[in-house]
Design a protein that fits this description.
Layout: H1 8-19, E1 27-30, E2 41-44, E3 53-60, E4 63-70, E5 79-89, E6 96-102, E7 108-113, E8 122-127, E9 135-140, E10 145-148, E11 151-152, E12 164-171, E13 177-184, E14 186-189
Antiparallel strand pairs: 1-14, 2-5, 3-4, 4-13, 5-12, 6-9, 6-13, 6-14, 7-8, 7-12, 8-10, 10-11
């Protein structure tokens, strides 16, 4: 069952929140628009024999829907999407990513890379948005954990926020069943 996308007034609520801080110029890292310059690729557990599926679509202007089904058959258990940024993005003057999201009780991860190479380290941050109401989620860059194929990489340096090259979204941890995550544009915030 797909959740109904937010009303336009909910998008404006996020704008109203930002207008309380006129000295901060909001910067979008990810835009969910039909004409956005990001191409989202599906990367699922099929590489290891799994049968999960998932996709990211634009539900309406400024709203993205990450949805599909995680199946545990054949050693599977995750679904993800990845997009390369049009050019490397310098986020060094920001603290992290902020988004409004409504979920389904499942835990999700946002991933950032300093390279467009799929074999590069992914810096991940988990979040669990509320299922019924919109959650305002802030993910500080300093809390992103370096990973390789879902495992923590102990000797990796911190995320280089001066050179963000790709973004990704995951549902993993063997959370079986349908998943639906509705999000508004990912913005950068300062604290």
């Amino acid at each position: 069952m797909q959740r109904k996308p937010p009303e336009h007034t909910e998008t404006l609520e996020f704008q109203d929140h930002l207008e309380q801080f006129p000295d901060i110029q909001p910067q979008r890292l990810v835009r969910f628009h039909q004409n956005a310059d990001l191409y989202w690729q599906t990367l699922g557990d099929q590489v290891m024999g799994g049968q999960s599926d998932g996709t990211l679509t634009h539900a309406e202007e400024g709203v993205g829907l990450f949805h599909g089904t995680v199946r545990l058959d054949n050693g599977g258990g995750f679904s993800s999407v990845k997009a390369d940024l049009p050019k490397p993005f310098d986020a060094a003057n920001y603290t992290g990513i902020e988004l409004l999201a409504r979920g389904d009780g499942k835990t999700y991860k946002i991933g950032l890379r300093n390279s467009t190479d799929r074999r590069s380290i992914v810096y991940q941050h988990t979040f669990t948005p509320a299922a019924e109401d919109w959650s305002r989620i802030q993910l500080p860059f300093s809390d992103f954990i370096p990973t390789w194929r879902g495992k923590t990489v102990a000797d990796a340096g911190p995320l280089d926020t001066r050179n963000l090259a790709s973004v990704s979204l995951f549902v993993s941890g063997r959370q079986a069943g349908e998943f639906n995550l509705v999000m508004q544009d990912w913005r950068l915030f300062r604290s």
